[in-house]
Amino acid sequence: MNQDLSIISLLLHASLPVQLVVALLIVVSVGSWAAIFRKYFSLKRTRALNEDFERDFWSGTSLNELFSSAAQNAKFAGPMERIFASGMREYQKLRERHVSDPGTLLDGSRRAMRASFQRELDAVEQNLSFLATVGSVSPYVGLFGTVWGIMHAFTGLAALAQVTLSTVAPGIAEALVATAIGLFAAIPAVVAYNRFAREIDKIAIALETFIEEFSNILQRNLTAHQSPASVASAAGR
């Protein structure tokens, strides 16, 4: 009986629709775990890059030097560094066009940083919707397999003259396997989604805070009528 009611044995004797549902859920579960590991390491790298740049930003290095370094390492830079580079690039372009109005300079730099912020946030949130879909849909897919399996089991029992627990149990058990696998796929996806969503919110708050701080720095420099070449060092910000 233990061998007959093992998961592998139940799946091998299940109806074709149930087997297809289980196969789909297994594929989705594997894809979900792959997305979880990719997102975990991606967010870890993003946090590290942001912390490194923020440390350099407040270490005393001039903004021009930071901008030059960000332009050279654009492919390997973190979101915060790319946001800084976009704001500084727009600021310098406006100064090269002899725009002297502080409001125009600051507004142009802020718009560039906000646009870059949105692009970076979209990149950080990549694959998050997939985990949300897996977490919300997988139980229902498994339930569909269970309902179909139970219908198939009772249809077969209708032809029997005498129905006992030993004849009912295998059919119902193989149907319930689909629900179990659906939950197995959904639970890790939901847990990972909630954790990653909190981490992304922290990253977004840090980036928005940096945009405001950098905007304040530019505003002070504009108020003091300083040129880009003589921008104050990060330590004096």
TrEMBL record:
- Topological category with respect to the lipid bilayer: Multi-pass membrane protein
Which compartments does it reside in?
Answer: Cell inner membrane; Cell membrane
* Cross-referenced InterPro entries: ExbB/TolQ_transport, MotA_ExbB_proton_chnl, Tol-Pal_TolQ
Q: Does the keyword Cell cycle apply?
A: yes
Give UniProt keywords alphabetically: Cell cycle, Cell division, Cell inner membrane, Cell membrane, Membrane, Transmembrane, Transmembrane helix
Spell out the Pfam families in the cross-references.
MotA_ExbB
> Where are the bilayer-spanning segments?
20-37, 128-151, 171-193
Q: Please state every residue range assigned to the domain named MotA/TolQ/ExbB proton channel.
A: 79-207
Q: Which domain of life is it from?
A: Bacteria
Keyword Metal-binding belongs to the record: no
Briefly state the protein's biological role. Answer: Part of the Tol-Pal system, which plays a role in outer membrane invagination during cell division and is important for maintaining outer membrane integrity.
Subunit organization? The Tol-Pal system is composed of five core proteins: the inner membrane proteins TolA, TolQ and TolR, the periplasmic protein TolB and the outer membrane protein Pal. They form a network linking the inner and outer membranes and the peptidoglycan layer.
So what family is this one in? Belongs to the ExbB/TolQ family.
Q: What is this protein called?
A: Tol-Pal system protein TolQ
The species is Variovorax ureilyticus
The lineage, from the top, is:
Bacteria, Pseudomonadati, Pseudomonadota, Betaproteobacteria, Burkholderiales
